[in-house]
Inverse folding.
């Protein structure tokens, strides 16, 4: 319903036009009033502007009210990105938003570890990112497969419903990954408030994708990477 209302605003139909559309689309009953209520809420929240003769998309809406829904991976909230691509760019480098999403993913991974390990091994889990944000990984944990090894887990979390996992990785994280054979990149996705473990990757899975620096004048610090979600090895190491 939200996308219908925004679509009509993008096409610059009038409020009356949308009302007629809503009646034709679903017939009589409360569904019509639900559609009109949603349009009214979009106008009140300044996502849609009613100029009287026509509706229009507000190109720069305030997104603060829906940030919690976006951080929870609610698909209906992320569907708005198609209508407000410029406004949604803020979530690509909003450190506070990304930190909140990242923490949710890390806590979910810890919950899986705690459900999989014995009590004495649970004590060995360390949520490193909570006291050292430059370690190059988020969690230290013993292996759940019982191989007596400890792993450095860098957790990347996505809240967008897509076949691709989009993530940002820092130069420091890559340097730590290449120096430690037990470093793993763990993928988590959160859709409609429900987290799901994608699995993990070795540094060898992406080292060949890293840019080559051909001059001392060029030095990359952060990369945006994408992986098909089915490329992750299932479970945790």
């Amino acid at each position: 319903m939200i996308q219908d209302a925004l679509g009509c605003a993008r096409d610059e139909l009038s409020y009356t036009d949308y009302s007629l559309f809503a009646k034709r689309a679903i017939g009589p009953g409360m569904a019509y009033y639900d559609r009109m209520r949603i349009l009214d809420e979009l106008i009140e929240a300044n996502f849609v502007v009613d100029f009287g003769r026509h509706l229009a998309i507000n190109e720069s809406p305030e997104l603060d009210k829906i940030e919690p829904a976006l951080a929870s991976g609610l698909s209906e909230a992320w569907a708005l990105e198609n209508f407000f691509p410029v406004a949604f760019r803020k979530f690509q480098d909003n450190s506070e938003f990304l930190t909140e999403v990242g923490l949710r993913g890390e806590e979910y991974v810890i919950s899986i570890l705690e459900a999989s390990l014995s009590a004495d091994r649970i004590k060995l889990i360390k949520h490193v990112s909570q006291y050292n944000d430059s370690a190059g990984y988020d969690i230290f944990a013993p292996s759940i497969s019982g191989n007596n090894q400890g792993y450095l887990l860098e957790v990347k979390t996505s809240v967008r419903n897509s076949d691709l996992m989009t993530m940002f990785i820092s130069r420091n994280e890559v340097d730590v990954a290449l120096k430690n054979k037990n470093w793993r990149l763990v993928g988590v996705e959160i859709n409609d408030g429900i987290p799901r473990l994608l699995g993990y990757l070795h540094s060898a899975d992406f080292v060949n994708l890293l840019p080559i620096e051909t001059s001392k004048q060029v030095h990359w610090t952060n990369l945006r990477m994408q992986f098909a979600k089915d490329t992750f090895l299932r479970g945790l190491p």
Remarks:
- The longest strand covers residues 150-158.
- The longest helix spans residues 95-116.
- The radius of gyration is 22 Å.
